[in-house]
Amino acid sequence: MRDFNPAYAGTPPWDIGRPQKEIMRLAEAGEIQGIVLDVGCGTGENVLYLAGLGYEAWGIDRAATAIEKAKAKAAQRGLKANFLVADALDLQRLGRTFDTVIDTGLFHVFSDEERPLFADSLATVLRPGGTYYMLCFSEREPGSWGPRRVTQAEIRATFSQGWRINAIRQATFEINQPGEARAWLSSITRLEESS
Ligand SMILES: C[S@@+](CC[C@H](N)C(=O)[O-])C[C@H]1O[C@@H](n2cnc3c(N)ncnc32)[C@H](O)[C@@H]1O
Fold first, then answer.
1. What would the mean pLDDT of 179-187 be, rounded to a whole number?
2. What is the pLDDT of residues 155-174, one digit of tens each?
């Protein structure tokens, strides 16, 4: 499991200093509802954007350096947001649930073995009927720079039981270097226990 703390000593390529535009589109479309958790939130731009819109917004990341930066930004901008150092593979430890979970760039860092563990962990904090929006690099992104590419089939396999895939659509992942990466934006709802 990679330690991302050293990356946050500087500004990593994914840390664009603003929310991902796909997240802004979701919020503008009214897709993000209720209390929101950003898993693997990095330095918190998505969380701070949503907090600025009036959402109760939470962000967790395993990298303490990223969470320190996120907290500093919240204080600087006078925004109320909740940032915690936590493991996305053990979300039950948060001891609470959320209506919506967002993810820009976390799922695509997981190994094959970690993917089902993450889906199980996610199910402990997303209320039944709540939706997980996930932005990841897609296999349509050429070259080998950056994170591993994820296929639609891999997303469907990970969330095949206890989840409904509402949509997986072509999207872009913004980076702080020239160009944008080809991505998938998935909308995945946690099913009620009996469904
Ligand atoms: C590519 S970065 C994306 C960060 C952020 N979402 C953004 O868009 O700027 C992936 C993030 O996932 C975090 N991460 C990786 N594994 C994690 C885990 N098991 N639990 C929580 N965070 C994790 C890393 O520390 C890193 O901040």
1. 96
2. 999 999 999 999 999 999 99
CATH entry, 17-190, from 3.30.450.40, 3.40.50.720, 3.40.50.150, 3.40.50.300:
3.40.50.150
Residue 168 Cβ contacting ligand 1 at under 6 Å? no
Cα angle at 88 between 85 and 94, to 5 degrees? 65
36-82 tens-digit pLDDT: 999 999 999 999 999 999 999 999 999 999 999 999 999 999 999 99
Average pLDDT, the chain: 96
Q: How far is the CA of 47 from the centre of ligand 1 (A)?
A: 13
pTM: 0.97
Cα–Cα distance measured from residue 117 to residue 146, given in angstroms and rounded to the nearest whole number: 23
Q: Which atom of ligand 1 is nearest to the CA of 114?
A: 19
Among 91, 101, 109, the mutation site with the greatest number of ligand 1 atoms within 8 A of its Cβ is: 109
- Angle in degrees, 0-180, between the axes of helices 45-52 and 21-28, rounded to the nearest 10: 30
